[in-house]
Amino acid sequence: MARILKNLFKHLLMINIHKFYVCLYCFKAGIFWRGIKHDISKFHPIEFFESIKFYDGKKSPIVNAKNSKGYSLAWQHHKGHNTHHYEYWVDKLDDGGVAIKMPYKDVIELICDYIGAGRAYLKNNFTYESEYEWWLNKLKNEHPKI
């Protein structure tokens, strides 16, 4: 029980640190309302309770859930309720997937989201260069033909 309470408070803190940085970057980009409402679905029970269970403070609880169970119900909910995730814009998975063009404001929020996550998780070790390297590795691992 003590671990669950500890994870609950640490996860709440991480969400708020992440939201702070995303809001900061969204404000700089001129998308104020998106910064304010960013990731509000993280407080939905489907996302919140799984994230508490898999919280470790080093990486996203969604990654930990996927590594442990092979999937994350929190992620399924999150990407389906937040248009700033490119996965929201993929349809026809039975036919291999069709990408729908994301609206510009969603793309900007996505960039703010990833930079905000880097700032939240890496803390003092964050650099824009490390963020760029993360993007390159993500592209290479998820899209090897690029």
List keywords for this structure.
mainly alpha; 2 strands; 146 residues; globular; 65% helix; two-stranded antiparallel ribbon
Task: Describe this structure as you would to a colleague.
Helix 1 packs across helix 6 and helix 3 crosses helix 5. The chain is 65% helix and 3% strand. The chain is globular. The chain is built from 7 helices and 2 strands; from the N terminus they run αααααββαα. It is an all-alpha fold and 146 residues long. The protein has a two-stranded antiparallel sheet. A hairpin with a 6-residue loop joins strand 1 and strand 2.
SSE order, one letter for each helix or strand: HHHHHEEHH
Low-pLDDT parts are none
Distance between the termini: 46 Å
Which percent band covers the strand fraction? under 5%
How would you classify the helix and strand content by structural class? mainly alpha
What is the mean predicted local confidence, pLDDT? Answer: 93
